[in-house]
Amino acid sequence: IKEENALLRSKINKLQILSETQADKMRKLEKKLQENKIKEEKEAQDLEAMVQHVEQNLQLMTKRAAKAENSAAKLRQENAQLQAELRNSRLEMEALRAGQAGLAAAKQNAELALQHLLQVTTSSRASIRQLLSGAESLQLIADLLKSIDRISEV
């Protein structure tokens, strides 16, 4: 009986040690679980902040694209007006050449105006191209940001 008691006490001691070890593991796992929950909450908050930032950038880029489109439309209108003026100037110049050979000063003024109109037309066309290119770039960035927003939702 003494041997059996000693054997049973030994088993009880082993089981108590095992129980304490498992309790320690359980406490460590619970602590790790809590740490992971906190980490996930922080990551979710960071992700939400990033999504809000992306949305703000998207709104800003949309406004910029709208401004660029408006500027392009204004420049197109100005270009059309300038081309009409150019046609009128050419017609006037031709009339002056045919009808009044003695007005050299008027001819020079018309030539100068024509050159100026051509320069303005050329520069306005270049500006329109740049604005359209900028609007396309902004649209591409907006599409990219929308994709990022969709990915972050997934």
TrEMBL record:
Question: Which UniProt keywords are present, listed alphabetically?
Answer: Coiled coil
Give GO cellular component annotations, separated by semicolons.
centrosome; ciliary basal body; early endosome; midbody; recycling endosome
Listed under GO biological process in this entry are: positive regulation of cilium assembly; positive regulation of protein localization to cilium; regulation of cytokinesis
Coiled-coil residue spans = 12-99
Q: Which residues cross the membrane?
A: none
Family per UniProt?
A: Belongs to the ENTR1 family.
Q: What is this protein called?
A: Endosome-associated-trafficking regulator 1
Originating gene: Sdccag3
